[in-house]
Amino acid sequence: MSLILEAVKATIPAEFYGLPLQKVAAFAFVTTVKTRRLGMSMTLSDERVFEYKLHLPVSHMGEIETLSLKDVLAWTDSLQGIERSFAIAAINSALPLDGKNYYAGNALDLAAQLGVGKRVAMVGHFPHTDKIREVASTFHIIEKRPQEGDLNAGEAVKIIPHADVVAMTGVTCLNDTIEGLLALKKPGAKVIVVGPSVPM
């Protein structure tokens, strides 16, 4: 169980739990759920990212829209990756946003701004990171599916404790790795969580 996701879910008012799912869709890369608004998540279907290696069917396939928000929120602990994707999208569709301040911009640009002359670690392989690489004193990409130049996910324990800025994929919310990665960061390090799976 993710304590972070449980804390995020706790911000959803109980009166929203009965909301019907107006639209649901799982695509190759993105899953969406609409309750109060459209919520998104990455579709978690790659065993290299979600390591339970159980080939379980998706519950209520073909009739997910008949479920309530509360039913789908329970899937945050599912061992079925696509169910987890629906759960994160459902969270994002129902979070109360009133009274919060939001800023338009690109999170990777923010990572570059914060990373000038600093040690930057990125969990997850993102495109368009040249700007960060140019300004950071060191820059490492840590990835469960490493591409050329990336470090394997197991290297996180060596890299993150020294990073001044840690930018990580929101998939860490989906695959039960966010708490462990946050525990590795040094005090005072800046953390940015990026992508459609980030509950916000």
Report the order of strands and helices.
HEEEHHHEHEEHEHHE
Strand proportion, as a percent range, falls in: 15-25%
Cα end-to-end separation: 19 Å
Residues in helix, %: 25-40%
User: Which overall shape is indicated by the principal axes computed on the Cα atoms?
Assistant: globular
Task: Determine Rg (CA atoms, Å).
Answer: 17 Å
Biggest sheet, strands in spatial order? 6-5-4-7-8
Give unreliable regions as ranges.
none
Compute the number of strand runs: 8
- Average pLDDT works out at 91
CATH topology assignment of the largest domain: Enolase-like, domain 1
- What kind of sheet is the major sheet? 5 strands, parallel
H/I helix tally: 8
Number of separate structural domains? 2
Specify the CATH class of the largest domain. Alpha Beta
Q: What is the correct CATH architecture of the largest domain?
A: 2-Layer Sandwich
Structural class: alpha/beta
3D structure, described in words:
This protein has 2 domains: 3-94, Enolase-like, domain 1 (2-Layer Sandwich), CATH 3.30.390; 107-194, Rossmann fold. With 200 residues, the protein is α/β, with parallel strands linked by helices. It is built from 8 helices and 8 strands.
Comma- or semicolon-separated keywords:
Enolase-like, domain 1; 3-stranded antiparallel beta sheet; 8 helices; globular; alpha/beta; 5-stranded parallel beta sheet; 8 strands; 28% helix; 200 residues; Rossmann fold
Outline:
The chain is α/β, with parallel strands linked by helices and 200 residues long.
SSE inventory with pairings:
Layout: H1 3-9, E1 23-26, E2 30-34, E3 38-42, H2 69-73, H3 81-94, H4 107-114, E4 119-123, H5 130-135, E5 138-143, E6 151-152, H6 156-159, E7 165-169, H7 171-174, H8 178-184, E8 190-194
